[in-house]
């Protein structure tokens, strides 16, 4: 039985949270960019 904590669980969790947050930010940016392009195209048609 070990008393020391294994840090790799937390390292993997930190990477998972970081990569997940980065992926969410990229997806949010793409969605926002598509909406802005659609609004720009609609404004040009008027």
Automatic annotation (TrEMBL):
The organism's place on the tree of life at top rank: Bacteria
Keywords: Membrane, Transmembrane, Transmembrane helix
Transmembrane segments: 12-31
The UniProt record lists the keyword Transmembrane helix: yes
The protein's name: Heme exporter protein D
Source organism (scientific name): Novosphingobium clariflavum
């Amino acid at each position: 039985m070990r008393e020391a904590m294994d840090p790799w669980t937390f390292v993997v969790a930190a990477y998972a949270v970081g990569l997940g947050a980065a992926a969410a930010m990229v997806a949010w940016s793409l969605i926002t960019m598509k909406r802005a392009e659609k609004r720009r195209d609609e404004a040009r048609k008027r």
